[in-house]
Amino acid sequence: QVRLVESGGGLVQAGDSLRLSCTASGFIFRSHSMGWFRQSPGQEREFVSSISWNGESTIYADSVKGRFTISRDNAKNTAYLQLNKLKSTDTAVYYCGASTVVVGARIGSLYKYWGQGTQVTVSS
Fold it and tell me: Phi/psi of residue 75, each to 5°?
């Protein structure tokens, strides 16, 4: 059974940091790129960041570049998203996904597996 479980969300103040984790099971983690997306109420899910299967290539949305860092540990079947200098506009449910496009992808439809999401709320 394929599972992606996100954790690490919470309520923080603007300027604070969080580290999100996404732990995978039921598929070959190291054969997939991993991505993070987010969705705010009334908005479409938007791309945040992705990382290639081996961690050597990363992609970021312009809105988070320089503040967020994606990483992965294939030995632990886990992907991470470090969120620094958080803003109120970062408030959303954050989802991780796994894609067979091994170099990473911005498009949600290229992701095969999804987690249930973790809420990040940033108060100003």
Answer: -70, -25
Radius of gyration of the chain (CA): 13
Residues with Cβ < 8 Å from 42, sequence gap 6 or more? none
Q: 10 Å Cβ neighbour count for 32?
A: 22
Question: Counting beta carbons within 10 angstroms of the beta carbon of residue 120, is it exposed (0 to 12), middle (13 to 18) or buried (19 or more)?
Answer: buried
CA distances from 119 to 27, 37, 101, 110 (A): 25, 12, 26, 23
Q: What is the distance between the alpha carbons of residues 48 and 96, in angstroms, rounded to a whole number? A: 10
Task: In whole angstroms, give the CA distance from residue 50 to residue 38.
Answer: 12
Angstrom distances, CA of residue 121 to CA of 34, 36, 75, 99, 103: 23, 16, 30, 27, 30
19-67 residue pLDDT tens: 999 999 999 999 999 999 999 999 999 999 999 999 999 999 999 999 9
